[in-house]
Amino acid sequence: MDIWRGQVEEVLAGLGTGGEGLGAAEAVRRLATFGRNCVAARPRQLLALRFAREFTHFFAIVLWIAAALALIADRFNPGQGMGALAAAIVGVIFVNGCFSFWQEYRAERAVEALAALLPQRALAFRDGRLDAVLAQELVPGDVIMLEAGDNVPADCRVIEGRGLRVNAATVTGESRPVGRVAEAVEAAGAADARNLVLAGTSVVAGHARAVVFATGMHTEFGRIAHLSQHTEERPSPLALEIARLSRLVALAATALGAVFFFVGRALGVPFWDSALFAIAIIVANVPEGLLPTVTLSLAMATQRMARRNALVRHLPAVEALGATTVICTDKTGTLTENRMRVVSLMAGGSAWMPRPERVEEANEAGATPALAGLLAVAAGCHGLRLDPDAEGGYAGDPMEVALVECAAAWGVRESGTRVAELPFETGRNRMSVAAADGCAVWLLCKGAPEVVVPRCVLQRAPDGGTVAVDEDAIRGALDAMARRGLRVIAFARRQLDAGEAVADDGAERELILEGLAGIEDPPRADVREAVARCREAGIRVIMVTGDYPATAVAIGREIGLTGDAPRVLRGEDVARMNAAQLALALESPQVICARVTAEHKLRVVQALQQRGEVVAVTGDGVNDAPALRAADIGIAMGRSGTDVAKEAADMVLLDDHFATIVSAIEEGRAVFENLRKFLTYILTSNIPELVPCLVFVLLRVPLPLTVIQILAVDLGTDMLPALALGAEPPSPGLMKRPPRPRSARLVDGALIARAYFFLGVLESAASLAMFFGVLAAGGWVRGEALGRLDPLYLEATTACLATIVVMQVANLFLCRDARLPAWPPRLAANPLLLWGLGFELALIAAIVYLPAGNAIFGAAPLDAETWLRMLPLALAMVALEEARKAWLRRRARRQPQHAVRAG
């Protein structure tokens, strides 16, 4: 028998379970039998293939070509060390490939470990008790509870439901939410059965109890997933930028080598010398450490963000955060504490304290007759579930918990039996419950005042009777509460006629308004400071909330988000405007969007993106998923967020705190800045590696720096310090700069000018000065030939190499910030710098003073006087660069902040 055709009792019996679920021991036994409830992961590429891929990217191919040319040169012109050079280049490719593979592997495992901090859970009955269990441990026969915002964790048959509606688009393709019932139905298949909820779908509204009948790959979703596991993922913007940069640099290096090979030949340089020259230029211009540095920088940023309660679900999202220009944030739980407390009640035309000291005193004062209707609705109209472990005995929406607790403080508790429910939905902004109390059935309704009050024909009088609705008095009370920053809820009810069904909105008519409640949700303690940091960083913050406009304005004013008169866009305003009008309205420096639906929120995000903004959006409900997906950065709440919101987001806030978003943006900015620091440092050394080759060809002097020595710098002394720059924490002034433009490149004109034409030129001048200084001190004159193993030549070329390393040591501190001074060095902020410096100095010492280093790199020992002559040259570069930074800072102070865009 198909499971959807059976009655509830038959289904439970067939699955060997009951309405209270399985025992824990039976669940363990079934888990061993049926396996874990998870879709088989997409097959990963074999590690061996992924390892091999590290040796076939653009940079590696260029180096393979260089190694091949060196081998050919050694074959036709032996004795020039070209064979050793080819072996060295191959060694560079291997070391770099291994390191890059290891970094990528570690980063992948780190992201998986962070994701494990936030596993999907389900509420299941085990041993008759409702507990949160891992969704992957569900088994056929488990009875689970489903609520609005939950992802359905397995294929289930509904056995009890109230207003249940699900979004089944992921399985059936049906875009509109569909209702679900518990009764047996006739259907052609599982996808069409109205009493089944399938894995991969999500609950839009209502509540249900359901029994699991299929898990893992046996679900409908599992079968679909099996068909789609070979779909390729789209590369991120950062990956595209790195690929573009890699191709550009590799092609430029190859083209430059070829050009100067022919230039050398045209100037009469011997063929093999020209070939050596071309190989040197190619090797000098390839930043071999770029790819592992990108991965390292992103991975370390994700780990720092996790320590600051921001869980990154997609690694490239880290860098994208740094470009954020606008944050569209929820109010409740993000800007506020989400600790609801009723602080004001209005019933019968009078204001009441929410919590009397003694109920008897309230009765004597005549409060109970006036408040009876309001408290009855507050106690009975909710979607909470009983939870003995929760404070107050209920778990669910904090606002509903606060209302139930308020009613309990007056001695009023839920009574009667629920017979129907119209759940809260975006767009309706209200919920209703039909409860049978004795011979009467009451419809209890609560929601936003602007949707509840128009459905009321009477309102409660002080003596418990009814009078005509006084709209002016209601509006005055509503505005007074909203100006205090309170969230206002209206309560109404009516007695249903005998046999009247509650099936749709038509039942919510001719109501009696029982009163209003003002609920306080205080702003988080440090959210004002976080908003101020955003403003200082050039990031606009727009509150997008479903709350009453005056309440949103009051909270915005309290946290420093707006002044007294911000531009307020209601949901109806957003719906009425066309795209151009909405974009213009959002240009206002202070904007609050209130009473918005999911569709309105999505339109706001799209309008901002059309204006060129990089938009981060927060959300916690199932209705926030479209905006989270459409945003450049979707940010879900980890505590209060629904499964649907978390799945749609790029990042999850483990503490639901707005200030955490600001910290995450700071880390995102640091990633982009660190990559630019790395590139500045690496590209700077390309010039003192390239210029000696030009001098060799154009001036017909001994080659100041050999190819093997270039490799010693690129993959030896420079590698670890450059990686340390990729792991720099955010610099102190990073959040005082405007966001970088969307069009900003990792390598732009300013970086090229600084690295190639300023720092690189200074290093080239210093290294050549030392080279020719040593030659002159040894009695060399221009035109005199020097053998490759001549002691004077070995000492001179070693001095050139050592000078580049010394200059790069100074450059390491200069590159830590393009604007701020290098002093004080702040070494404690990045211990990797010390390791990098130690390795760099140890390696150059080994090259200069160890016999093996001399033999491999064509070097010779240097005396102390030679080292001392390098220091003034390094200090001169530091002084000139610090002067340039000081000039930039003075210029930035003279210009308006918006005119200085951070690159």
Overview of this protein structure:
The structure is a single chain. The protein is α+β, with helices and mostly antiparallel strands and 903 residues long. The chain has four domains: 1-232, Distorted Sandwich (Calcium-transporting ATPase, cytoplasmic transduction domain A); 310-336 and 524-656, 3-Layer(aba) Sandwich (Rossmann fold), CATH 3.40.50; 345-518, Calcium-transporting ATPase, cytoplasmic domain N (3-Layer(aba) Sandwich); 669-899, Calcium-transporting ATPase, transmembrane domain (Up-down Bundle), CATH 1.20.1110. It contains 31 helices and 26 strands. Strands 10, 11, 14, 15, 16, 17, 18, 19 and 20 form a nine-stranded mixed β-sheet that branches. An eight-stranded mixed β-sheet has the order 8-26-25-24-9-21-23-22, sandwiched between helices. It is elongated and about 115 Å long. The relative contact order is 0.09. The model is unreliable at 228-234, 362-366 and 897-903 (pLDDT under 50).
List the defining traits of the structure above:
single chain, 903 residues, alpha+beta, Calcium-transporting ATPase, cytoplasmic transduction domain A, Rossmann fold, Calcium-transporting ATPase, cytoplasmic domain N, 4 domains, nine-stranded mixed sheet, eight-stranded mixed sheet, 31 helices, disordered C terminus
Task: Write the SSE topology.
Elements: H1 8-14, H2 24-34, H3 47-53, H4 58-76, H5 82-115, E1 121-126, E2 129-134, E3 143-147, E4 155-167, H6 169-172, E5 178-179, E6 196-197, E7 202-214, H7 220-227, H8 237-266, H9 271-285, H10 290-307, E8 310-312, H11 317-321, E9 326-329, E10 341-347, E11 350-352, H12 359-364, H13 367-380, E12 385-386, E13 394-395, H14 398-409, E14 417-422, E15 430-437, E16 440-447, H15 449-452, E17 456-460, E18 466-468, H16 471-483, E19 487-495, E20 511-520, H17 527-536, E21 540-544, H18 549-558, E22 567-570, H19 571-576, H20 579-585, E23 591-594, H21 598-610, E24 615-619, H22 625-630, E25 633-637, H23 643-648, E26 651-653, H24 658-698, H25 707-717, H26 719-726, H27 749-777, H28 791-814, H29 831-849, H30 851-857, H31 864-894
Parallel strand pairs: 9-21, 9-24, 17-20, 21-23, 22-23, 24-25, 25-26
Antiparallel strand pairs: 1-2, 1-3, 3-7, 4-5, 4-6, 4-7, 8-26, 10-11, 10-20, 12-13, 14-15, 15-16, 16-19, 17-18, 19-20
